[in-house]
Write a structure and sequence with these properties.
Blueprint (H helix, E strand, L loop, with lengths): L1 H21 L13 H12 L6 H14 L30 H14 L6 H15 L19 H7 L7 H9 L5 H8 L6 E3 L4 H5 L13 H10 L10 E3 L11 H7 L6 H5 L4 H12 L2 H15 L22
Antiparallel strand pairs: 1-2
Helix pairs in contact: 2-4, 2-5, 3-5, 8-13, 8-14, 11-13
The structure holds protoporphyrin IX containing FE and 2-acetamido-2-deoxy-beta-D-glucopyranose (7 copies).
The site of one 2-acetamido-2-deoxy-beta-D-glucopyranose has 4 residues, from helix 6.
Pfam families: peroxidase (PF00141)
Keywords: Calcium, Disulfide bond, Glycoprotein, Heme, Hydrogen peroxide, Iron, Metal-binding, Oxidoreductase, Peroxidase, Secreted, Signal
Organism: Nelumbo nucifera
Length: 325
Amino acid sequence: MLNIGCVGIILAIFCLVGSAQADLKIGFYDQSCPKAEKIVSDFVNKHIHNAPSLAATIIRMHFHDCFVRGCDASILINSTSSNQAEKAAVPNQTLRGFGFIDSVKSLLEAECPGVVSCADVIALVARDSIVATGGPSWKVPTGRRDGVISNASEAQSQIPAPTSNFTTLQTLFANKGLDLKDLVLLSGAHTIGIAHCPSFSNRLYNFTGVGDQDPALDSEYAANLKAKKCKTSTDNTTIVEMDPGSFRTFDLSYYRLLLKRRGLFQSDSALTTNSTTLSFINQLVQGTLENFYTEFAKSMEKMGQVDVKTGSSGEIRKQCWKVNS
Ligand code: HEM
Ligand SMILES: *[C@@H]1O[C@H](CO)[C@@H](O)[C@H](O)[C@H]1NC(C)=O
Ligand SMILES: *[C@@H]1O[C@H](CO)[C@@H](O)[C@H](O)[C@H]1NC(C)=O
Ligand SMILES: *[C@@H]1O[C@H](CO)[C@@H](O)[C@H](O)[C@H]1NC(C)=O
Ligand SMILES: *[C@@H]1O[C@H](CO)[C@@H](O)[C@H](O)[C@H]1NC(C)=O
Ligand SMILES: *[C@@H]1O[C@H](CO)[C@@H](O)[C@H](O)[C@H]1NC(C)=O
Ligand SMILES: *[C@@H]1O[C@H](CO)[C@@H](O)[C@H](O)[C@H]1NC(C)=O
Ligand SMILES: CC(=O)N[C@H]1CO[C@H](CO)[C@@H](O)[C@@H]1O
């Protein structure tokens, strides 16, 4: 009996150690690279004011990274002659900020070579750049490891499209362990940033293939977009603020616009088509900004842990754009 008990206790200890290794933790680099997080935030604080729009593109990069093979920096890998990487997939065509991530990584490699993962760099830069531009903060436990596979067709199928309907959004989020509340809150990131016309011009010019407009889009807003922004159905260069008037401010107006049928994408508009998500939107609009920030932070922490690689899986890439050779 005693022996079995001991074995049980030893197993329990192994289990505890095992699961502790399998989790991310706050301050993962405290011993191995004590200055890491400060190096990241100092760089962000120093440079973001010259390029505040980077905050939007990098939080979006973090989302796209986490949705394909987990938050493992697979999004950063460049295509090769034998591999079409995630970057090559349509949803990534408008991502920017790769150079910014590379610069942060170079500083970290100079300080402690081979220690800090590119996946953690994305997660930290995303948080720090949103904070530096006046938005919400959230906890970023670290210890993610970098993946060695990046596959364009996986990005194509797992990242929601701006034309996605409610069911598709719910399914793609649920596949990553994210629920309807997370869907509504994380979509709230569309309170900042810009889109290009092709992401929504079908709603203006040819919704069902008969030259029509999306009836779910406010007609006055649609007319305005056609007159002043996406003047033709093939415009692929004009950019549009997703939350016009406050596209640099992380506020509640994205949700207010949804209720006015002025969400820019079908995927934004779709959030009002289900009673559960509509009710979350109403609660957010009626609540305080503080409340939105708190809830947004919880969902970001969840998203930042999707399918992460820890312990000895994956690698610590030396350069973020290619796997170690
Ligand atoms: C719910 C499903 C989502 C869909 C279908 C979607 C789709 C898109 C599309 C099509 C664009 C514009 C691309 C362009 O035309 O240039 C965009 C921009 C953006 N998305 Fe999303 N998104 C979703 C969720 C999210 C999430 C979860 C986040 C972050 C937490 C996010 C953050 C952003 C940001 C900040 C931008 C602006 C990027 C910039 O200014 O460069 N999106 N999104
Ligand atoms: C990797 O791709 C990025 C853009 O995605 C590009 O700017 C960079 O030059 C590429 N790096 C190399 C070394 O090819
Ligand atoms: C990429 O993923 C798709 C779909 O899962 C798969 O069919 C394809 O073989 C993968 N490509 C590579 C190069 O691994
Ligand atoms: C949602 O979109 C998917 C994929 O395009 C489609 O198969 C499905 O029928 C749509 N669902 C509804 C309710 O329109
Ligand atoms: C609308 O789409 C349909 C089907 O794709 C196409 O045949 C038609 O030419 C388009 N009309 C316009 C005005 O773009
Ligand atoms: C944008 O449209 C122009 C003209 O139609 C075309 O030459 C170009 O390749 C398009 N660019 C992208 C990124 O699709
Ligand atoms: C909203 O989505 C939830 C979850 O899928 C579902 O239970 C509910 O029936 C949907 N409500 C409506 C009105 O579609
Ligand atoms: C940043 C990046 O690599 N974007 C690529 C996205 O995919 C298109 C083609 O599918 C490329 O032309 C872009 O360079």
